[in-house]
Specification:
7-stranded mixed sheet, alpha/beta, 16 strands, 42% helix, 395 residues
């Protein structure tokens, strides 16, 4: 009975869709996005988004989602037309729980829903396995936050990234540790995720090349919060700097446990710990912590202060990647307008021609889909605020 009921519903849905289509509308047979109409007659453009919306990284996931939502709301307020048709952008957001297995299930759901573009996923460990599914379905994917270089090294023509990757970020951090933090002996902990391990490996290469010595490299899992064993081993090596490759939900307790154990090393991390949540969770232990963030400081971008005011008036403090999510949506919307189509196969060639003055950067892509000339800024927590120390590669 279930099968008969499902078939009847499917038949009714197909019939309704066929009746509502205009004569010139066709549904791509390749799995690419189909067009539907809203009650007002506008063509619906589905914007897919996925991130951890529950669990320890939920604050980052909601930050990403709100960045996408702000862009969608602004685009809809403009009343855009594409290909001579009024359009309405529609956010479709899913919780991938920062789990690669769940991410692939979410990706297939978006393919079945025929989204016009995918913004995400948040983590490298979810983005990379999901990207194959989007590629096979002909869906363009724009990453606002996955920094592992493997994402754009797979040869997928529809894969793009609007922030600098970990080759760039790791190099800046490794050199900064040795040259600016005067670190001779360096310890590393990473969370074994695609992001944490990838960034830690790039950091290690750069630190060694700059003349530093790696005295320890310990590992944890991205769902663990007790680091006593790793930190005790590291304490015996007397490092000048401890670098952590991972996210703020673990970085904060790690900083606190370093203080408890009397580990004197300076604490250094990547963009995963550069959040207001890190300072909240770490408390007094956050003071003096150093971290990087791709891009120039928001207040130095021509559109940065305006974005900050608009976003925070609606959603509260920016955690991390919201501006990049906003830019990702705006970049694809502009490509659709230039192509006069929201179908990925038709606007994809325009993505490669992008030259968009965004909130975070002037966005242009190289032949792999990576951001050209991405900057990296290094910050330190001073009296409860992330203060700029140095920007490398600003255009």
């Amino acid at each position: 009975m279930k099968n008969l009921f499902a078939l009847s519903i499917l038949a009714a849905s197909v019939a309704m869709t066929a009746c509502s289509k205009k004569p010139e509308e066709t549904t791509p047979a390749t799995g690419a996005a189909a067009t539907t109409a809203s009650a007002s007659g506008a063509t619906i453009i589905k914007i897919g988004h996925a991130a951890p919306l529950t669990g320890p990284q939920a604050h980052l996931g909601k930050d990403n989602e709100n960045g996408v939502r702000l862009a969608v709301d602004e685009l809809n307020a403009k009343g855009l037309t594409i290909g001579g048709q009024k359009v309405q952008f529609e956010l479709h957001s899913e919780d991938d729980q920062a789990d690669p297995r769940i991410a692939t299930t979410v990706a297939q759901k978006f393919v079945d829903d025929k989204v016009n573009v995918m913004i995400g996923h948040l983590n490298s460990g979810t983005t990379i396995p999901a990207s194959r599914i989007y590629n096979d379905a002909g869906i363009v994917e724009i990453s606002p936050s996955a920094t592992n270089p493997k994402y754009t090294q797979q040869g997928y023509k529809g894969a793009f990234r609007v922030m600098a990757n970990d080759v760039q970020q790791g190099k800046v951090l490794g050199e900064f540790a040795v040259k600016e933090m005067a670190a001779k002996n360096i310890a590393i902990i990473d969370d074994r995720s695609a992001y944490g391990q990838g960034l830690a490996d790039e950091f290690e290469k750069a630190a060694k090349a700059a003349g530093g010595t790696i005295v320890a490299h310990e590992f944890t899992d991205d769902d663990k919060f007790d680091f006593a064993a790793q930190l005790t081993k590291i304490k015996g090596t007397s490092p000048d700097v401890l670098f952590y490759g991972g996210m703020d939900a673990q970085g904060a307790p790690m900083a606190k446990q370093m203080k408890t154990l009397g580990l004197k090393a300076q604490f250094l991390g990547g963009d995963g710990i550069h959040t207001t949540e890190f300072m909240k969770l770490a408390g007094a232990a956050a003071e003096g912590v150093t971290a990087s963030l791709p891009g120039v400081p928001l207040e130095k971008m021509p559109k940065g202060p305006d974005f900050k005011q608009k976003f925070e008036s609606k959603y509260g403090a920016i955690q991390l990647y919201a501006p990049y999510c906003y830019d990702a949506v705006m970049v694809v919307a502009e490509a659709m307008q230039r192509a006069n189509s929201a179908e990925p196969a038709k606007y994809l060639p325009e993505m490669a021609k992008t030259n968009y003055e965004g909130v975070t950067a002037n966005i242009k892509f190289d032949d792999k889909g990576d951001l050209q000339g991405g900057a990296i800024t290094v910050y330190r927590v001073v009296k409860g605020n992330w203060e700029v120390l140095k920007t490398v590669g600003a255009q």
